[in-house]
């Protein structure tokens, strides 16, 4: 997919937003709502999302925070963003994350999304984690480095892999973008992703950030098991 195709897709999504404003429909089920609904979710869906308010957990030095548990409604939201082109949902997920950060009272310096492999990102037209990170950065007034981390090689889909296979699948596949080393060294990093399962991807990203001199790394995931 070339740059012109990606631009046309972006323009197309913007046009759809004008024709079918996202605040008219529930992000999760598509039922008609009004603009007063929190996160653009209907009463039914917001009541069935399993919100999480537990403390930060430590995973080998990586501090992990989630907004929700992983389930049907949470997966539906992310899949609508990633695979159905409903990029406007990124704004509401960013708001959910901003509220979660406020509740946890976490301080950090810069947002870095988990990267996609470049060819895969070009094919989809966007990196969903980076899109969420862009809106989150605006909400919390923090810099967002969309390409602070790089995925050096393509990986297999994680679904269906065992924990050991997941770890091997991503081992050594992430590196710091040299352009941003000075912006990351000595800083508290908020690593951003949609799902967190075994932590294999997050830990590889954490290792790359620590090698670049990051002082501390938090992972904020929208949903986690």
Automatic annotation (TrEMBL):
Gene3D superfamilies: 3.40.50.2020. Belongs to the ComF/GntX family. This is ComF family protein.
């Amino acid at each position: 997919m070339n740059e012109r195709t990606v631009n046309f897709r972006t323009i197309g999504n913007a046009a759809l937003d004008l024709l079918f404003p996202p605040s008219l429909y529930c992000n999760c089920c598509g039922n008609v709502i009004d603009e007063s609904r929190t996160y653009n979710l209907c009463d039914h869906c917001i009541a069935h999302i399993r919100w999480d308010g537990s403390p930060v957990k430590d995973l080998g030095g990586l501090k992990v925070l989630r907004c929700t548990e992983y389930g049907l409604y949470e997966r539906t939201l992310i899949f609508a963003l990633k695979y159905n082109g409903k990029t406007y949902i990124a704004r509401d997920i960013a708001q959910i994350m901003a509220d979660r950060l406020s509740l946890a009272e976490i301080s950090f310096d810069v947002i870095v999304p988990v990267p996609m492999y470049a060819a895969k990102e070009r094919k989809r037209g966007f990196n969903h984690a980076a899109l969420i990170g862009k809106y989150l950065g605006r909400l919390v007034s923090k810099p967002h480095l969309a390409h602070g981390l790089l995925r050096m090689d393509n990986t297999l889909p994680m679904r269906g892999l065992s924990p050991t296979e997941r770890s091997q699948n991503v081992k050594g596949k992430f590196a710091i973008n040299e352009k941003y080393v000075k912006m990351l060294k000595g800083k508290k990093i908020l690593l951003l992703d949609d799902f967190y399962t075994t932590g294999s991807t997050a830990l590889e990203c954490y290792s790359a950030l620590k090698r670049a001199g990051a002082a501390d790394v938090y992972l904020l995931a929208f949903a986690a098991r």
